[in-house]
Amino acid sequence: MGSHAFRSARGLLAQVAVGVPLVLIIGFAPAYGACGDSVIDEGEVCDPPGQQSVCSDTQVCNADCSACVAYCGNGVVDSGEICDPPGAQGVCPANSVCRDCTLCVPAGCGNGVVEAGEVCDGWQGCTGGLECNATCTECTLCGNGVVESGEICDPPGMQGGCPDGQLCTYGCTQCTACGNHTLDPGETCDPPGPFGAGGCGPDSICTASCSCVAPGLDVCQAALEKSTLKFYGYVRAALTKCGDAIRKEIAKNAQAPGTGILVRAAKLCQAQLNKVLDTPGLSITGSARQKFFRDIDAYASKKCSSTHFQQLGHMLSGAPALQAPGTDFQDFLKNWLAVVNVEHALVEQIAEVPDFLNLVAAAINAPRYGTSLSGAPTDCSLPSTCDPRAVAGCRPDLCSLRLQCKSHACHLSATSSSVIDPAASSAMTNSLVGQSIMDVCTLEGFGYGLGNSGDGVFLVGEPAQAVAPLTVMGNTICVDQISAEGFCACGGDFIGLSKDVSACQDHLVGAPNSDECPTGALASGGGVEAACFCGTNSTDVSMVPCGDGFPACEPGTVCGFTHTGAACHPGTRNGAVHVALSGATAAGDCLVYNSMRLTTLQPGGDCNPSQSGGINDNPASFGPDCTPCTSDDFIQPSDVRTIPFTTGTASAMIKDAVQSYGVCTTTSNHTCIEHANCANTTNADDLCDGRQVIFPTFTTSAVSGAPVSSCRNLEDGTLTGLTLVGAAPLLDSPAIGDAVATFSLSCE
């Protein structure tokens, strides 16, 4: 028999003896019914004091639990605040002040905070439509439509005395052409706006100075991470408060039987969880989930283009953009992220507090206390749309507290296979051996109203080496699942997403915007090919760079390899991978975006039986253990891509697929597929000699999947008969060249 120590959410130490009943030492608690016991009793509006409790996001409970009061300005940095009070330095860095308790800004006029010595600042401190002047010394009439002393124009946002084609700026001190919907000299777009606005491309926003700026993928990823972590934190906090309230009532009963009222803890849990989850039908504003959805909408306008979402492996709602704001329940990505984060928070809560679900069950099964509506026992048979404020026993968010995601393994049957069809040789078929692990997350318990004519389940894949290594043309290919994101439709058409997938990539785009592939709902990747190196073949590549601005390769070597051994053509522009979706989903259809890492390991070295010499004098790419795709492999750059897998059909094609290469006429040891590859060498008159063979269109037969027999079987782990298929174009694969790959994963 042993013991374990842990620290509860409130920092109190307890001892758990393995094999004996749990004894929790919590110390003295406020008398039941007293302000400060975290239970909203008769006559109380909130509880405990100084915390948000059931108050709005800008309020905390006051000292006697009688009212919710604004917390910003009380001089205390409460939960959710960065600083306090506004207008003072407080905890902000030197030479900065607090604004709205949510941000530290540089001190001085123009920061939107009325500081000591200022009469006003921006719109702050002025009333009656007045605006603060540029020195923060008085409120002016900027905005009244009259150009007065000190003004150049008025009102802001209109011509207001400016020359034709120009608008008055904020502060009435300048005229500008930016915003007039006309592309004037010095502008690259007009008017300012989100992605695609003012004439910018789909991945650029039009700034306030009328210039197109494309935020980087890192900006999008950082924004998503920040919002996701914040939502996750809200969920964890609500779960912790719920568990603490239940355990407190249990402890009261342990000290004095009959004093702990579990049904009131159940009521508190419902209130806390609803502030996070906002089960549809309650009309609760400002929930953490709604804020999370608004964050994603904002990022989709300013920080994350559709291409960014696709590069991160996310599935959008059947269109190259998120659904418009206001259609939250119909947007796949936002709901998928919310469900996954709620599930992860619950799993983490259980990991830290193993009996958490037992506590929840105790609260749900608690008997009635008193005759009031709040004392009614929880009734989980009520619909999730019931209103706890009017229906006795209605606590839908509390009832949803169970593990919604179940991990299932799809054991690959003998019919599972991959076909890699190179443009330069015949197709090669590999049997796929292994299993794919997938979390199946039900939606009904969360109460999210997702789906058109029927709901579905979400699919979540964790990092794993799903299948045994493949052998292609003497090379070993490791296939690792990085993540998976998808759904199965249970009742028919699911939020307008489609099931049939067709992928296409153009190898030789030439000039920008001359991509020959059909434009699809999704597009990612592409661009100018990577830097090239000299080598004798794909398995013997030096680190000597070649191509634009570099000397010719040494005799006996050619310029035309990446450092992974893949073919390389400096100056060649690849098109994006376009994925077209078609065919409405029916009951049992599934679509999964599987982010996979494909790593090519070349043979030879000490693992070759004919190799002579000492141990590891010529190590193979798969390491000293001579076993490929294990942890001791010598690190090789990988090709990471997102491939849609579906129960419908999947096909892929390559436009301008390369079968064989040419040679530059002057630099004979420089391979090429177009003149641009030679023009980028040190001799501008160098041309590709025409021996290259290019297929205008290279494709392979489509593969077909099979739907799951029912969502109930999917939830129960009966995956037999489910077949997911995928297809992808592969450009310049090491030792293979251009190829089209198809995959078929059948569960036995």
Walkthrough of the structure:
The protein has 748 residues and is α+β, with helices and mostly antiparallel strands. Among the domains are: 216-403, no CATH class; 407-605 and 620-746, no CATH class. The strands form 11 sheets. Strands 13, 14, 15, 16, 17, 18, 19, 28, 29, 35 and 36 form an 11-stranded antiparallel beta sheet that branches. Strands 20, 21, 27, 30, 33 and 34 form a 6-stranded mixed beta sheet that branches. Helix 1 packs across helix 5 and helix 2 (262-277) packs across helix 6. It is globular, with a radius of gyration of 32 Å. The two termini are 43 Å apart. 42% of the residues are buried.
Label the overall shape: globular
Helical amount among residues, as a percent range? 10-25%
Number of beta strands: 36
* Major beta sheet summary: 11 strands, antiparallel
Mean pLDDT, as a whole number? 78
Give the strand content: 25-35%
**Gap from first CA to last CA:** 43 Å
Structural class, by secondary structure, is alpha+beta
Gyration radius, to the nearest Å?
A: 32 Å
Which consecutive residue ranges, at least 5 long each, have pLDDT under 50? 1-33, 613-618
Please, how many helices? 9
